[in-house]
Specification:
The chain is of the alpha+beta class. Helices cover about 50% and strands about 20% of the residues.
Length: about 160
């Protein structure tokens, strides 16, 4: 009887140790899997939205961007103006899955996924006041969604002719 009781306690102890070991070994893997699933779903939300934009959408986003550009302040960090470290994201944008809004001097970046991989809509004001829309789908692909990018030529001309 004593021998049986000793073996039961040894086996119960081994099971408890195995459970704790499995928890500490598998917990990071479960966390990383959850994180990558979330990142992937955010990227797909952004990509799907940008691919579905039409001419009416561009007009609305241009108006929204003009309002955000009024908030630009060169003394503040442009990243995270809205989102985790800044003000709350407007409800209609958070419903689209946007997690962060960055406000730069001439552009507003609406971010679905950032960090290791990026998915965002960049609405940029050209030097002549018109806007163009660039969609960043991931680290390898982006495309001009609407408008004409004019700033590059003017910046290159200014650099060539100081």
């Amino acid at each position: 009887m004593k021998f049986l009781r000793k073996h039961i306690f040894v086996w119960l102890g081994a099971i408890v140790v195995a459970i704790f070991a499995a928890y500490y070994v598998l917990r990071p893997a479960v966390f990383m899997g959850t994180f990558f699933f979330f990142l992937s779903s955010q990227m797909h939300k952004g990509q799907g939205f940008m691919d579905s934009m039409n001419s009416d959408d561009f007009y609305q986003w241009e108006s929204r961007t003009k309002e955000f550009l009024k908030e630009y302040d060169s003394k503040k960090d442009p990243m995270y103006r809205y989102g985790t470290e800044g003000s709350a994201i407007p409800k209609d944008l958070s419903d689209l899955g946007i997690l962060r809004i960055d406000i730069y001097k001439d552009s507003v970046c609406y971010v679905w996924a950032g960090g290791m991989d990026h998915t965002y809509l960049d609405v940029v004001r050209n030097s002549d006041g018109t806007f163009y829309f660039r969609g960043r789908y991931d680290e390898r692909s982006e495309k001009l969604l609407h408008g004409e990018e004019k700033n590059k030529e003017s910046e290159q001309d200014a650099a060539a002719n100081p």
